[in-house]
Amino acid sequence: MQRIVNLLVVKDGKTLLLKKPRRGWYVAPGGKMDAGESIMETAVREFTEETGAKPVDPNLKGVFTMVIRKGEEVVDEWMLYTFVAHDLTGTPMTHTIEGELEWHPTESLNTLPMAEGDRTNLLFASSSPGIQYGTFTYTEDFELLDEKIQNSMEGD
Predict the structure, then answer these.
(1) Residue 50, SS3?
(2) CA distance 96 to 117
(3) What is the mean pLDDT of the chain?
(4) Contact (CB, 8 A) for 22 and 32
(5) How far apart are CA 55 and CA 89, in angstroms?
(6) Residue 156 reports pLDDT greater than 50
(7) Global confidence as pTM
(8) CATH number of residue 116's parent domain
């Protein structure tokens, strides 16, 4: 099963988001875990590779199972670990091979184009205490079919 880690920086009422060219959807910078790597190591490495800046004191905010269905059949499944940091060192690039990096007011997470599970995940990560757990089920075209969410106040 694939393991993906993303990291959202929230600073001065704004979030740093990556606009992906394929759909024009916004995501938190991140990517695949390497063999033997911890989720924290992946979060810092992927964020740094994709932005050119380094997150300061990231914290785990979400653990999710992502399921892709074609009819009744599960055609893909992966784990997503989401981190948040409230500061960074360095200046983020504006254009990368992954897309365009942009600062947006945190409340714009409510309306920017993105996968609906990402919206749930990033809104929680940006503004709620604790850790969120859940499962998001999508069609192959990333239409959200179902989300099951649990929140925990411990650990923050």
Answers:
(1) helix
(2) 24
(3) 96
(4) no
(5) 6
(6) no
(7) 0.95
(8) 3.90.79.10
